């Protein structure tokens, strides 16, 4: 598991560290009594629920705390044996680099090449050396083809890789990555993880790496240590990755993180099998998991097959929601006046449903970004039925976000047409159409406009003229969905995950017919994902049409009904029911594992 060269020098040390933002001593600390050490070359996974203090710790590592964010601090943080108080900010930032979760927060120039060169230029490196370093790092990350591009022409994943390159070119000793794979497609994710593995194994680097991540499955094989924070910002679990996965996995599951599905299946199987658990090694990667069925009896294969179905393919915990067909009404979540408003809208001839209940349709849809020659969407023709629950997938730059913008009427097609309930969008008043669309942007801050949670949630109803239709009880429920009880809190002081949940609350409140979500699971802990999925599932059962753009194929496999896949050039690659799609695209771990078990059972029954 430990991929690093053994080293003795302590790179990072937290000593009974606590921190309160601001000057109110009575305020609950963001983190409390944090104590741990990292040796040079260690790779740490820092996990925990949204808002548990992971970002606060990262700020303390690289000097943002105390030099940029002020507050009350107890204890100390040492970097290579020296207190952060004894560094100046510029000196510390050369040693410790922080790649934030939202790449837009760290982009400062207009072109890719200028962005990567920015830090080196400020340190007055010779131009020849800057050119050489840029060439080396971009080839290393396989992004040299982007060097002449403008930043605003890049996808979210491409921007993440550019930010990473801009820090790696500075050759830091400690690198902090805040959800580094969140915006990446499968290819870019694998590329980044492989490059990080190569980086930490290289004898040319003494890099200590901290990865802040909810989704543990993709990073456990990189790391040798793990620390999990509780909801109140204390260390609830820490140790070696191998120890935690083998001996304390049930504790890890209770920590509200997304545990590796591979280890989870094995752990659940251990609870029901009569076999000695020591017969199997603890699988931490897919190759190890695939070997287990070969040593099982037929009945045991059937047991693990059913576990896989119940946990990963058709989640058993959603069965209760399948019974909601008759039970779901608006009185629990939406008040009756909103229900009548929705019914009145549907009764207007302009919104009458067409045959086959097609709610959205694109015909030969194309979109080219102005003055760039870049075609994001090409000749796309699809029909989306009312009540569909669709996963939108494709590589970075394939036009997924652009398609959502077009469907939301935020972009105008370069050519082709979009129809809502069989009527061209060009015939609608944009304000009137907006009432029927709820759009969650990829960057949650792009749709935060007010300075309190209450005002933010009510922003839509106020603009739509339905403010009087929202009752206080419902508003309180939506604030609770965020994970906050203070309606006067400033939204910009929320964590990334909490901002995402605020976005959801701000669209649920006005009850749109169509909900578009661009990477909604980024920055979300397991509890919140379960809550979001359950809420969307119920909305879908009510007849809402939901489209989720995501790189998280694993979640789409579990929860959606249909899949739209786009090619790199913005053309349609596939559009099918979820089950049929994943039968044709059997490159996902759970599907491969399921087929492996079916194959073994079939061979034994011949």
Main traits of this protein?
Rossmann fold, disordered N terminus, 24 helices, 606 residues, 20% strand
Descriptive report:
The protein has 606 residues and is of the alpha/beta class. The protein has three domains: 10-252, Rossmann fold, CATH 3.40.50.300; 261-317 and 592-605, no CATH class; 328-351 and 387-398 and 431-570, P-loop containing nucleotide triphosphate hydrolases (Rossmann fold, 3-Layer(aba) Sandwich), CATH 3.40.50. Helices cover 38% and strands 20% of the residues. It is built from 24 helices and 20 strands. The strands form four sheets. The protein has a six-stranded mixed β-sheet with strand order 6-7-8-3-9-10, sandwiched between helices. The longest helix is centred in the C-terminal third of the chain and has 17 residues, at 589-605. The chain is globular. The two termini are 39 Å apart. Residues 1-6 and 324-355 have low confidence and may be disordered.
């Amino acid at each position: 598991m430990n991929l690093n060269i053994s080293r003795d020098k302590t790179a990072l040390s937290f000593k009974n560290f606590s921190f309160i933002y601001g000057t109110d001593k009575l305020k609950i600390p963001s983190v409390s009594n944090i104590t741990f050490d990292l040796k040079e070359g260690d790779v740490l996974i820092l996990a925990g629920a949204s808002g548990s203090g992971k970002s606060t710790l990262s700020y303390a590592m690289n000097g943002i705390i105390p030099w940029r964010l002020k507050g009350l601090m107890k204890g100390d943080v040492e970097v290579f044996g020296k207190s952060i108080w004894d560094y100046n900010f510029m000196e510390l930032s050369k040693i410790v680099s922080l790649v934030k979760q939202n790449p837009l927060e760290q982009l400062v120039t207009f072109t890719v090449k200028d962005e990567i060169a920015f830090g080196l230029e400020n340190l007055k490196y010779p131009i020849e050396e800057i050119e050489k370093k840029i060439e080396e790092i971009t080839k290393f990350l396989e992004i040299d083809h982007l060097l002449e591009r403008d930043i605003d022409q890049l996808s979210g994943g491409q921007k993440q890789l550019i930010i990473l390159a801009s820090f790696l070119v500075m050759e830091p000793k400690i690198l902090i990555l805040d959800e580094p794979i969140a915006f990446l497609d499968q290819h870019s994710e694998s590329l980044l993880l492989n490059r990080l593995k190569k980086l930490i194994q290289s004898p040319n680097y003494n890099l200590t790496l901290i990865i802040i991540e909810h989704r543990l499955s993709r990073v456990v094989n990189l790391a040798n240590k793990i620390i999990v924070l509780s909801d109140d910002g204390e260390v609830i679990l820490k140790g070696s990755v191998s120890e935690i996965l083998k001996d304390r996995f049930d504790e890890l599951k209770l920590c509200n993180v997304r545990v590796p599905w591979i280890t989870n299946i094995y752990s659940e199987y251990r609870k029901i099998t009569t076999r000695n658990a020591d017969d199997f090694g603890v699988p931490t990667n897919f190759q190890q998991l695939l070997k287990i069925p070969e040593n099982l009896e037929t009945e045991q294969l059937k047991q693990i097959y059913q576990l896989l179905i119940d946990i990963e393919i058709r989640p058993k915990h959603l069965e209760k929601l399948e019974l909601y067909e008759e039970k779901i009404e608006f009185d629990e979540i939406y008040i009756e006046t909103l229900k009548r408003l929705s019914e009145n809208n549907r009764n207007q001839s302009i919104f009458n449903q067409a045959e086959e209940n097609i709610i959205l349709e694109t015909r030969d849809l194309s979109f080219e970004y102005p003055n760039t020659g870049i075609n994001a969407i090409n000749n796309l023709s699809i029909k989306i039925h009312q009540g569909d629950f669709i996963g939108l997938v494709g590589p970075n730059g394939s036009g997924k976000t652009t398609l959502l913008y077009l469907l939301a009427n935020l972009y105008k097609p370069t050519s082709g047409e979009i129809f809502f309930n069989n009527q061209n969008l060009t015939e609608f008043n944009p304000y009137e159409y907006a009432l029927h669309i709820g759009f969650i942007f990829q960057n949650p801050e792009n749709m935060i406009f007010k300075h309190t949670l209450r005002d933010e949630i009510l922003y839509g109803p106020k603009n739509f003229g339905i403010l009087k239709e929202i009752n206080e009880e419902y508003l309180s429920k939506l604030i609770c969905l965020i994970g906050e009880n203070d309606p006067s809190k400033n939204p910009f002081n929320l964590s990334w995950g909490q901002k995402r949940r605020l976005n959801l609350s701000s669209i649920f409140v006005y009850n749109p017919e169509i909900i578009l979500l661009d990477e909604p699971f980024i920055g979300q802990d397991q509890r919140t994902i379960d809550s979001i999925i359950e809420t969307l599932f119920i909305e879908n059962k009510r007849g809402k049409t939901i489209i989720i753009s995501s790189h998280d194929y694993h979640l789409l496999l579990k929860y959606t009904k249909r899949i739209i896949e786009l090619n790199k050039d913005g053309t349609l690659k596939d559009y099918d029911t979820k089950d049929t799609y994943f039968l044709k695209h059997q490159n996902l771990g759970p599907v491969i594992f399921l087929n492996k078990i079916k194959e073994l059972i079939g061979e034994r029954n011949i």
